[in-house]
Amino acid sequence: MPTETKTTCPYCGVGCGVIARVDDEGVVSVKGDPDHPANFGRLCSKGSALAETIDLDGRLHHPEIAGERAGWDEALDLMAQRFSDAIAEHGPDSVAFYVSGQLLTEDYYVANKLMKGFVGSANIDTNSRLCMSSSVAGHRRAFGSDTVPGCYEDIELADLVILTGSNLAWCHPVLYQRLAAAKAARPGMKVVVIDPRRTMTADIADMHLAIRPDGDVALFNGLLAHLAKSTAIDENYLAAHTMGFAAAFATASSMTFTELMDRTGLGANEIRQFFALFERTEKVVTCYSQGVNQSSSGTDKVNAILNCHLATGRIGRHGMGPFSLTGQPNAMGGREVGGLANMLAAHMAIESADDRDRVQRFWGSPTIADRPGLKAVDLFEAVADGRIKALWIMATNPVVSMPDADAVEAAIRACPFVVVSDVMKTTDTARHAHVLLPSLGWGEKDGTVTNSERRISRQRSFLPAPSEARADWWQLAEVARRMGFLGFEYTTPTEIFAEHAALSAFENDGSRDFDIGAYAGIGPAGYEAMMPFQWPAPAQEGRKTTRFFANGHFYHPDRKARFIAVTPAETERTSVDYPFTLNTGRIRDQWHTMTRTGKSARLSAHIAEPFAELHPRDARELGVGSAGLVELESPHGMAVVRALVTERQARGNVFVPMHWNDQFAAKARIDALVPPLIDRVSGQPASKNVAIAVRPFSASLYGFAVSIARPASPLADYWALAKAEGGWRIELAFASVVADWTAWCRDAFALPADVEPLGYADRQTGDLRLAFFEGDRLLAAVFLARQPVAVARNWAVSQLTAEHGNLRKRFTLVAGRPGAGKPDPGATVCSCFSVGVNQIITAVRGGCQTVEAVGKELDAGTNCGSCRAEIREIVEGCLTVAAE
Ligand code: SF4
Questions:
Q1: What dihedral angle (degrees, nearest 10) is formed by the CA atoms of 59, 64, 69, 70?
Q2: Which of 438, 514, 587, 769 has minimal Cβ neighbours within 10 Å of its Cβ?
Q3: Which contacts qualify for 484-488: CB closer than 8 Å, 24 or more apart?
Q4: Is 20 helix (H, G, I), strand (E, B) or coil?
Q5: Of 8, 9, 586, which is best to mutate to test ligand 1, by the most ligand atoms within 8 angstroms of its C-beta?
Q6: How far is the CA of 406 from the centre of ligand 1 (A)?
Q7: E strand spans, 158-283
Q8: Ligand 1 atom at minimum distance from 591 CA
């Protein structure tokens, strides 16, 4: 009998509900859960492709010690011994955990309990440090607690939605769809996008403010100064519920308008229009994300935004409030259990002796960390200088995602004892582990996650655990037991969640925001049946609201909010040697370091290689063609990626995605270029304002290849792999010419020695094509030229699954172009229906002049909607050309 399981998407912080269906043959399909309040049935391209990412290819099946298969007992005993030895010899601060917003709350809870309550150190930090720790710090400064005041519904109810440092269309696509639908239904709603780039999010914007990198504090200070002179200020709210307005206003108003324009890079009119819009619109929601957080002034940016909402009392009411959007599926759950090095469990403060005593009594633990531990950048510096003797990394890939990533890799390589828990056998980080532990993946693990609007949902298992993979909480509890600690006798995640809920309510008289005491007595049946719910959910009846702070009641001891006087910091980083500003971020169809989304051919077809967005004038001055390669360099590292020349990019700025790594490209770990520069309050790295040099990468030969087997690496001076239907697609470039291409192909694509190539070479143009067949099947083909190769790529990829019985078909392949009457679909735009750019252009030329008409003709954009902005751009581009 087919089964259907309600679970939650494991990617972004929207936290969409998913229904996973397993049919009689064991085939899995997914659809959005119409009853889940985060998405009401919608899924984006990544969520829709979840079933394509759950195969066991590349999975880690068994524990390994020093690269050899080991038993669980052997691995866990070794870990307990090595961690205990380090603590005995060098003290509790000589060990560290580096965990992840990908962990479930139950995993996170046990990790935090073990480190802070039993090891007695707070050296547990998480990749959420890189994502939203500035929001945490800003919330705590202003509210006295890490509280997100509003709900997703507010984004639909607002009359003005400001998106600052948030490419919502690509990074929180379902929330973007909810916003776009609300605006379509209520065209009077205004959307302002504040971003140095004109991202796809700006597609629905009434105003795009192309702010200078890190100009946000100046902009929101300017707004506060403007509001203070207007009637938008809520004097009653200020007097009753806040402190510190005068100082914040004095600091904000000390900046001249000229300085404001200079710091933001914005024109006088656009600044005035934005200020006037905010002033006259009561229902304002300001959403912010990594563009705000990933900055050396991230916490100040958050407080500059919060100041404006506090000053107008526009907080915690329908359609109003500041809104931090978290990047990861369980960043919020991690915050709830105290997964950051400077927090204690259940939103309690590590600095508070009362809170420490309370948590220690609740846990019955022998000790409790009495000061903040090492935050991510400091933690890896401590690994590098030898202070950390044993390190456990769970569900994250710091060799790719940490700033100064090459130095982080060197530190991990030199660490005396490194454990990595992961689902994949080979990652950039896992290759340096002394002990590798196989974890459960999405669909196999069981627990809870919390999304950006404080909604806790179940991730449920619907697949068996592969081989010996085990839950992360189980791994942690086993090590704790073997280290001699009591309090880790869990047998199910239900018991852990119940304990977590009980701690949230323990001696909580309303002075702590996080309270889910209603779930403290939950048993297996209740846990299994748990519906998504928003906290607070205290045990006692009474509190019904899902929003915070409309009537004050903040969490500072006097229950008042604090204005924070913030001063714009120096933001200029460029120099003569490093004249460009690098901004890193996400793309629509990949997630983090591609260990899961990189498995989907559909997702990989949208953007198949790492790229750098350059402004056309910058590209021209650099001598970079639109499909050329560029070398990017900072004092910390370098990368080689494809140039994507676009007017969407501001001059002097370069955008590069953070996903690519050594498993998918020759040299594209972009965080290797990012310096370990952090926000002084939150410790969050500044990943969006990096001074770099850009120059053309000189290649003597460019190539494109398809192969049914994953190619060996390194293949060339530049290479980038992407999963394709039936095999792999590969972009190539060579600094020097290879002497024997047939031998190179045999080696690169693991071809049988007796398979002879079909091909041609043109000495004059330098073009070379080689294809290898076995029976009716194409094994591999490579297309080489002195310029970036003009091959119908998606068509060439489709040949991996085509039959090549006759010679004519084989020669067509070698020509690199489909025959007459078989059009090339072009680069994929709509991943859900695999619709390419050429098909959309043909539809527009055939009379489809709107996104809706294209959707009717080709289905493109009619499922998840994530590609609608790109379709609109293509339609408008075609219509403009036709009109000229
Ligand atoms: S928006 Fe997309 S990636 Fe994010 S939770 Fe929903 S389906 Fe998953």
A1: -130
A2: 587
A3: 484/84, 485/114, 485/118, 485/366, 486/364, 487/113, 487/117, 487/118, 487/363, 487/364, 487/365, 488/110, 488/113, 488/114
A4: strand
A5: 9
A6: 30
A7: 160-164, 190-194, 207-209, 242-243
A8: 3
Least confident range from 213-217, 472-476, 657-661, 865-869: namely 865-869
Q: End-to-end alpha-carbon separation of the chain, Å?
A: 59
pLDDT digits (tens, 9 = 90+) for 802-856: 999 888 889 888 888 887 666 778 878 888 888 888 888 888 988 888 888 988 8
Residue type, 279: E
**Residue range 700-719: average pLDDT?**
90
Q: Ligand 1 pocket test: which of 8, 18, 40, 43 has the largest number of ligand atoms within 8 Å of its C-beta?
A: 43
State in Å: Cα 650 to ligand 1 middle.
28
Ligand 1 pocket mutation, candidates 8, 11, 831, criterion most atoms within 8 A of CB: 11
Chain position carrying tokens 């970079």 = 624
Read off the pLDDT of residues 776-791 as tens digits, 9 standing for 90 and up: 999 999 999 998 888 8
pLDDT at 667: 96
Predicted pLDDT of residue 119 = 98
As a whole number of angstroms, the distance between CA 410 and CA 225 comes to 47
Which of 323, 345, 325 has the alpha carbon at shortest distance from 335? 345
Which of ligand 1's atoms lies nearest the C-alpha of 43? 7
Nearest CA to ligand 1 atom 4: 12
The confidence band for 542, taking pLDDT boundaries of 50, 70 and 90, is low
In angstroms, what is the span from residue 550 Cα to ligand 1's centroid? 29
